[in-house]
Predict the structure.
Amino acid sequence: MSRRCLPWRTLALTLSALSLLLPALALAEPCDKLSKNVAQVYVQASLAATEAYANGDYDLSIVQGRAALAICSEDERVEYNLARAYHQQGNCPMARYHYDSVVETLEKRKRRADRAFLKKAKEYQREVNKACPEVVDLTVNCVDAGVIFDLGPLKEVRCPFEGRMVAGNYTLYARRDGAKPYTESLRIARDELARFRIPALVELSGFGTLEVTCAQGVAFFSIEGPGANDTYACPWHGELPVGTYRVQAQGAAESLQVTVLGLQHSAADLDIPRTSLGYAGFLLGAYVAPGTGYAAGPLYDEGKATGERVRSLSHVSFALLVEAGWAFGPTWAALARLRLDQSLGVMGGLLGRVVPYVGDALAWRIDAGLGLGTLNQPVFLTDGRVPVTESGPFFILAGTSVAYGVSDLLSLVAGLDFNLGVNADVVLHLDLALGVELRF
């Protein structure tokens, strides 16, 4: 609704507004007891509000008008000027609040000289009452002095505050010099008196900033201390209360102690040594795998089927496992495996590896995948015969292992591998894998 006026129009509006404000400038009866210095500030604010209104700067007129009313809240001329500024700005609830106050004051006085003034105020009052019939009375108080807040259409408002708003959900943003801003979500409901209290704001000297950077392979980290106890994605930058914090990369056994000082910047650089899986890169492993298992299938005697089925434990066999793959970070990898058994056959497979826990030198790993090949199981029978079951070609592979990092390049590995044949016969073979893993 704001509109710049022509020079002659601006002058006319200024003179008109000043005519309404003259009683205030002369320190009308409600404000005639102000001290000389306070009265001077009051008159300056009143004049500034009137001049800003005449120039179409309703935001400034509201700021100066509220400053004047904060000194003397009983001057209906200044409050009328404030109501007009809110009206022109489009803030119907606040315009209605101040029109109501002006009309109430003038009706109580019942002075003949105020009749024209009262008539005009009532006309505007009826206009805004039609425009916003449902508004909520609002009161905002503050623990601290000098707090300024924004709330919906209300901007740069000094606390304490009384007014009106349309019901709804709003965000309160309060601040003062030397303090951390305060934000709160507020709900103003219909048919209720909305009262809010802004708590004491924390001094900025009680906060500092912390920046956390991470080496390759570290995706998340935790912060524990007086202002935080949570997990964050790396890198991270934020504000924390003054104090000492424990910062730890996800999966690392050790942590950093970082002290956050008031109005200062602190930094932490996190890393997990490559002695665990905590990096991205090429993997190569070689293992000796003695093992045994269980077989169930048809009985063969000297290569001929006897028509019997057998269930028995197999004999111990020795195999060589060779793995190669790529680690995609600290928590998982993809691998290709070749199993060479001295008597049971050859099998190849593809596996995924998940690392639910990684320490600085120790990693627990879980493998799962599918294999293709032969793993024929010789089994021992009580009469000394050695039949063979044929379980290939498909296998389900699974395993778990622990890797201990000797250096950034080399780890020692011990684990169990399970190979389950899923053809007509059933074969379950368990290997104890012992070997080394290299990283490049």
Remarks:
- The chain has four domains: 1-131, 134-202, 205-270, 279-439.
- The first helix runs from residue 7 to 25.
- The domain at 134-202 is CATH 2.60.40.1120 (Immunoglobulin-like).
- The helical segments are 7-25, 36-54, 58-71, 76-89, 92-109, 115-131.
